[in-house]
């Protein structure tokens, strides 16, 4: 089954908007502005894997600056007080929240992994057995952010 | 009232704490657990009045924690705050004796609605 029939880019946008409203921009002053630029460079990658009736990954990616800003917003701290552990924790939670909401839209019988966070450029986050099937690409105060879904290629081949 | 907050994310434990405060539930004694096993241990040793638990945690999941507590005869009021929400999970939670199911991302208004009858 293609996940695109179950979770559309509009669905992803709605989930992400809720995250912004609840945690990252509760006052509505700096929303995530969609650009559609899927070539933008990102430095931090947070992934949750989904297994079961659907196999793939949900990846939250952004610049280090956007990661610091997110951690500061989550923790109600100044950006210069944010440490690497805070960034990993917040980025993991962001992927977990969106991944959990995605899972709720998939067929019953899916499992969500704990998040994995890599503070390294895009080349370090390579999913050899999966292909990107949908995504949101935007900027938050001029810093790049993307949320993408990757589906297991093997599952497609055997479907 | 003593409240145990169980979540493997320190950030999320802080956000739950902050959201409780924003929803007007100040002055409660808060205890934290960073995984499922610690949640069982603290739910037993600290004798909280309420457990607010994540679902997906290392060592033991939230539903395993709840089932373990009930199997041990511990009937503490227990509910979930989780990013995952499927009908099967809600149904498993209810069957195990969960009192509420809050989905992340959540707001102070949702906390107010769920916790007012419990925390007053």
Structural commentary:
Chain A is an alpha+beta fold and 159 residues long. Chain A has helices spanning 9-24, 64-75, 84-105, 153-158, and strands spanning 33-34, 44-52, 56-62, 110-112, 116-118, 130-140, 143-152. In chain A, 35% of the residues lie in helices and 28% in strands. In chain A, strands 1, 2, 3, 4, 5, 6 and 7 form a seven-stranded antiparallel β-sheet that branches. Chain A is globular. The mean pLDDT of chain A is 87. In chain B, helix 2 (36-45) packs parallel to helix 3 (62-71). The longest helix of chain B has 13 residues, at 10-22. At the A-B interface, helix 1, helix 2 and helix 3 of A face helix 1 of B.
Task: List the topology elements.
The complex is a heterodimer of chains A (159) and B (120).
Chain A: H1 9-24, E1 33-34, E2 44-52, E3 56-62, H2 64-75, H3 84-105, E4 110-112, E5 116-118, E6 130-140, E7 143-152, H4 153-158
Antiparallel strand pairs in A: 1-6, 2-3, 2-4, 2-5, 3-7, 6-7
Chain B: E1 2-6, H1 10-22, E2 29-33, H2 36-45, E3 50-53, H3 62-71, E4 77-82, H4 87-96, E5 101-103, H5 108-119
What attributes characterize this protein structure?
heterodimer, A: alpha+beta, 7-stranded antiparallel β-sheet, B: 120 residues, alpha/beta, 5-stranded parallel β-sheet
- Average of pLDDT of chain B: 94
Distance between the termini of chain B: 10 Å
Catalogue the unreliable spans of chain B.
none
Radius of gyration of chain A: 15 Å
Q: In which order are the strands of the major sheet of chain B placed? A: 2-1-3-4-5
Q: Output the number of helix runs of chain B.
A: 5
Secondary-structure-based class of chain B equals: alpha/beta
Helix fraction of chain A, binned, reads 25-40%
- What's the tally of helices of chain A? 4
Nearest-integer average pLDDT of chain A: 87
Strand content of chain A: 25-35%
Task: Give a short overview.
Chain A has 4 helices and 7 strands, in the order H-E-E-E-H-H-E-E-E-E-H. Chain A has 159 residues and is of the alpha+beta class.
